[in-house]
Each structure stands twice: as C-alpha cells, then as structure tokens.
Phosphoserine aminotransferase (Pseudomonas benzenivorans), 361 residues
Amino acid sequence: MSKRAFNFCAGPAALPEAVLQRAQAELLDWQGKGLSVMEMSHRSDEYMGIAARAEQDLRDLLAIPSNYKVLFLQGGASQQFAEIPLNLLPEDGVADYVDTGIWSKKAIEEARRFGAINVAASAKGYDYFAIPGQNDWQLSKDAAYLHYTPNETIGGLEFDWIPEVGEVPLVADMSSDILSRAIDVSKFGLIYAGAQKNIGPSGLVVVIVREDLLGRARSACPTMLNYQVAADNGSMYNTPATFSWYLSGLVFEWLKEQGGVAAMEQRNRAKKELLYGAIDASALYSNPIATNARSWMNVPFRLADERLDQPFLVGAEARGLLNLKGHRSVGGMRASIYNAVGLDAVQALVAYMAEFEKEHG
Ligand SMILES: *Cc1c(COP(=O)(O)O)cnc(C)c1O
C-alpha cells in the first residue's frame, strides 16, 4: 500500500483513511448485493437505506430537532448563495448579511441579484482580522433573514459566538466548520455546508432547514432549487449525488465511532492550540487574526520573509505535508485541519516548522 501523506488542503479536503478503506472494500460488491453503490437505483431499498442512515447519523451527531429537514442537494455551497434568497427573500423584502470575508462577499453579491440586501456589518474596518461586535451591527427592521459565515475558510476568521437576531431566521454558511464542534441547531433557521471540507466529496451540499421556512419560494424559483420540493421528495426530486451521499454517510458513521462532535471538539481544540501556539512562539511565523476570532479549521500564517515561502513549501512536500500554500488572494500559508486531519498531522507540521525556522530564521 502507498503511504498516505498529511493533507492540509482547504477543500476538497482529507477524508478519514478508514472511510476510504471501507468504500474501497465495498466498491465492487456492496454488502453482497453484487454491485457498487454507484450502480444502484436511488429508489432501491438498498439505497434508500443508505440515504436514511446517513441522514439519521447526521441528526444524531448534531442533535438536529425534529422540526428541521435535512436535505442532500447538489451544486455545492455556492448554489445556495442564490437558492437562499429565491426561497426566503420576498421580492419586496430585505435580507441582512454580515461581511466577514471572501465567502460572505460572494453570498452577498449573488443575493443582490434577487432583491434588497443590507450589509449589516463588515469586518472590512478591521482588515478582516476581527469581527465587529453585534452592538455595532445595523440590522434592518423586518429582515427576511440574516446571513453570516461562521468560519471564513480563506481568511481564517471564525465567530466564537452566535448572533442574536430574535425572530429573524438566522442563516449560516457552515461549509468549513460544520461538525468541528458542538452547535445548537435550534438557534438557526437554515444551515448549509458544502460537503468537501468536513463531510465528504465535493458537489454535494447539506441543508438543514426549519420546517416553517419551507413553502416560501418565489414563483420564479426553479423547481430544482425549491426547498419545499426537495423536502417533499426526500432530496430525490431528481437523481441525487448517490455516491457522495453514501460516502458522507460513511464519514458520519466514522464520526460516531470517534465519539461524535464532542470528541471532535476536544481533538480540534488540541490541534488548533498546538498550531497557533507554535506560530505565536516563533519569530518567523505569524497569524494576524484577533485571538478570539481565530479559525479552528483553517489556520493561515505568513513567513517573515516571502522569499522563504517556496523553500518552505518544497521542504514540506518532501516530508509528506501537502497543500500548505495559502489561497491566492491571501498569499502565505494555510493549514486546514479538518476532522479527518489528526493531531499527528499537526504535530508533524509543527515539528517541520520548528526545523525550518532553525535553518532559516
Ligand atoms: C468552500 C466554501 C464555499 C464554496 O463551496 P462550493 O461547494 O465549492 O460551492 C462556500 N462557503 C464557504 C464558507 C466555503 O468554505
């Protein structure tokens, strides 16, 4: 068997090795049925079982209340940038958005195609290194919803609190933080997450939506983008992304075996403390984010001299530490340390960083 590297990719990201092995073992002959999951009818008893089990495991992991639907849709998180206003924003209504970085900006730009958008707060005044406190937000009187991005995957800026917006439905893009630590789903109207960070393969997006928010879509909303239609059809109005859904289900099973989200939270806390601790203690590496807004899952850092970036990456790759190059808009480095990236990977990274600093610092 080939040796698996430590993969710090922001997305599509590392998957648990045990999950890949299980998928491999089941690939040609799923549980003695003589065919692969990819070759099954999505309406078959076998596949319906796989789909239902995945949903139930996710419900268990996040303690999702029964008045929420869980949808397994396509088009990634980006499709939701349009789908949310089409379903939740009346043509003469207004929606509030919070701008904390590149992903929230994309959500804002797309939503503007469909109606009035009020940017209630922006981290721009802090160069996107800190999150404005809610006292400084300019909320609309009758917002259809408030949208925010709890974890900005590129900037590495994360809320460690949940906005309080009373009766206004709270909509959260949890693409890169879902399942990383415990959340109270009942505080949200809608949660969505592209799968390829902390759930499974790309292309799939999981939407958790409170039932009273269904049935509000505009008449012009395409059928495929209508939450009510998706909910009524068990996310099978058309052929769903069957293999991605199945593989996500294997990840949910794995998470349960690991002790669920509480155990992940503990592990993730240890991982991020180790990495930020190493960055803060060094003279070569730095991270500019306010300490209470540092992302647990995506850790950007810079080297004091940009000319060291390339040698750093080359040395990292030689040690099997992959995909540490920062997003092109930010530069520097970024280590994404999702659930499937173990403490051993972070330890290996920190050891390499110290070694590199000794040589070049
Ligand atoms: C990756 C990401 C997206 C985009 O996801 P796609 O599935 O590629 O559309 C949106 N929001 C956040 C926070 C992300 O991390």
Summary: The longest strand covers residues 68-74. The chain has a mean pLDDT of 97. DSSP finds nine helices and 14 strands in the chain.
